[in-house]
Amino acid sequence: MNQEITIARVYTLEGHDHLNQVLDILRDEENILGATVTRGIAGFGVSKEIHTSTLLNLSLELPLIVEFYDETDKVMKAIEKLKNRLELKHIISWPAQAHIEQS
Question: Model-level pTM?
Answer without folding.
Answer: 0.85
